[in-house]
Design goal:
Elements (H helix, E strand, L loop, with lengths): L8 E5 L2 H4 L20 H8 L22 H15 L3 E5 L2 H4 L10 H16 L3 E7 L5 H7 L6 H16 L6 E5 L9 H5 L6 H29 L4 E7 L3 E3 L4 H24 L6 H7 L10 H7 L4 E5 L4 E3 L33 H15 L3 E5 L17 H20 L3 E7 L19 E3 L11 E3 L1 H11 L6
Parallel strand pairs: 1-2, 1-10, 2-3, 3-4, 4-5, 5-7, 6-8, 7-9, 9-10
Antiparallel strand pairs: 11-12
Helix pairs in contact: 3-5, 7-9, 9-12, 13-14
Keywords: Glycosidase, Hydrolase
GO molecular function: beta-glucosidase activity
InterPro entries: GH, GH_1_N_CS, Glyco_hydro_1
């Protein structure tokens, strides 16, 4: 049997915009998630050009506005996390709760006080907070007035936000993540970079310029954290999907290699190694990308490398150089061709536990930094039985097989320090804006038609995960 480290950080993960609700309470300003509608239209808008960032309640619903009301129910939810035995809880701070427009000089005290209460409640139950500083929550004013992260001025605004929260929570938060799934930005700039491309011709140029600004902001965050909280640990956060060649055709093998380099390692190389990767020069030249790099930027990036690497893992990706639309599968931001050896979830995401072991070995082999899996889980339709129970054996099976592969990676020699299952309590899906796509160990009575009491119920997986944590991964 494999053995997880005795201080392994077991827990769960969420994002403010997907579960807090109270979108206009406590002085909070509007952010990106507040203008994204629920349902099928969301993905279409996220992938298109020219989204107007307006709320239109005559046409759409906006489930993020209410989320699951963690804002008012955090004590109840944290007590449930404690009952499962969480060692760590990943959450994000909503930037627009702290600076409602994003460019103010003074923060909103009500927003700061809310997170004080949350962190205090977590510590009361012996749970370590793991805080994502930016998780698809760019203040709407910074999007409309400045054009999102394309504009270098956002570095200055982010600096102010970061210094404010590091100073306020220096005695309450040790673990920090800078930008959520930072490498997804070139595929979906709306989410990570806070802008909708004006046209396809400018998408890559604008996206990589925005990423450069985030790299500088992330490095400055690391340096600032070491000043304010000397014992802090700051990580990057990647979306990771191993890329398999469809077959042994060398053209497809090389294509898969290049796709993996660009998607999985480009951002990691900058944030972990402190420099742009060797393959960036050719890619930039071939795609006519010309970065505006100011004096001192590269030195800042070199000096502000992260302490550990965190990542989301939901699926692997299979690809080939020439493909047809009929061959394509679904995916988390990026897809590939269908893999005949893998089954898929209700939303078409292929299920590949061994891919997680591959991901862990690839990341550790490249960087030799501690790793933390901060998102992994199964989005599925859950049914409440007549007796009130939720028999989600399919979720247990999914998580069990992934945790087994984590154990194999630990035996391989990977330095794995933690695991936070995504959506440990049901919340609003980021990609589809649905309540119906449930990930949690805790069921929340809220539905896509707006109905529901918000009552919390323990699923079968709740008790299973409690045993997993209690046995440090030995009882699966």
């Amino acid at each position: 049997m494999y053995q997880f480290p005795k201080d392994f950080l077991w827990g769960g993960a969420t994002a403010a915009n997907q579960f807090e609700g109270a979108y206009q309470e406590g002085g909070k300003g509007l952010n990106l998630a507040d203008v994204l509608p629920g349902g099928k239209k969301r993905l279409e808008l996220m992938g298109s050009t020219g989204f107007d960032f307006e709320i239109d309640q005559s046409k759409y619903t906006y489930p993020n506005h209410e989320g699951i009301d963690f804002y008012h129910r955090y004590k109840e939810d944290i007590a449930l996390f404690a009952e499962m035995g969480f060692k760590v809880f990943r959450l994000s701070i909503a930037w627009s709760r702290i600076f409602p427009n994003g460019d103010e000089t003074h923060p909103n005290e009500e927003g700061l006080a809310f997170y004080d209460r949350v962190f205090d409640e977590l510590h009361k139950h012996g749970i370590e907070p793991l805080v994502t500083i930016a998780h698809y929550e760019t203040p709407l004013h910074l999007i409309k007035e400045y054009g999102g992260w394309r504009n270098r001025k956002l570095i200055e605004f982010f600096d102010r936000y970061v210094e404010t929260i590091l100073t306020r929570y220096k005695n309450k938060v040790k673990y920090w993540l800078t930008f959520n799934e930072i490498n997804g930005a070139t595929h979906m700039p709306l989410f990570g970079l806070g802008f909708s491309p004006e046209n396809e011709e400018t998408r890559l140029q604008d996206s990589f310029q925005g990423l450069h600004h985030q790299f500088v902001a992330s490095a400055r965050t690391v340096k600032k954290a070491k000043e304010i909280i000397p014992k802090s640990q700051v990580g990057c956060m990647l979306i990771y999907a191993p890329v398999y060649p469809f077959d042994s055709n060398p053209e497809n093998v090389m294509h898969a290699r290049r796709e993996s380099d660009l998607f999985n390692f480009f951002c990691g190389d900058v944030q972990v190694r402190g420099e742009y990767p060797y393959f960036a020069k050719r890619y930039f030249e071939e795609n006519d990308i010309k970065l505006d790099i100011k004096e001192g930027d590269l030195e800042t990036i070199k000096e502000g490398t992260v302490d550990f690497i965190s990542f989301s893992y939901y699926m692997s990706r299979t690809d080939k150089k020439e493909k047809t639309p009929e061959e394509m599968g679904q995916g988390n931001l990026v897809g590939g061709v269908k893999n005949p050896f893998l089954k898929a979830s209700d939303w078409g995401w292929e299920i590949d536990p061994v891919g997680l072991r591959i991901a862990l070995n690839e990341l550790y082999g490249r960087y030799e930094k501690p790793l933390m899996i901060v998102e992994n889980g199964l989005g599925a339709y859950d049914k409440v039985e007549e007796d009130g129970s939720i028999q989600d054996d399919y979720r247990i099976d999914y998580l069990r097989e992934h945790i087994k592969q984590m154990g194999e990676a630990v035996k391989d020699g990977v330095d794995l320090i933690g695991y936070t299952s995504w959506g440990c309590i049901d919340l609003v899906s980021a990609s589809s804006g649905q309540y119906a796509k449930r990930y949690g160990f805790i069921y929340v009575d809220k539905h896509d038609d707006g109905s529901g009491t918000l009552e919390r119920k323990r699923k079968k997986s709740f008790y299973w995960y409690k045993d997993v944590i209690e046995s440090n991964g030995q009882k699966l």
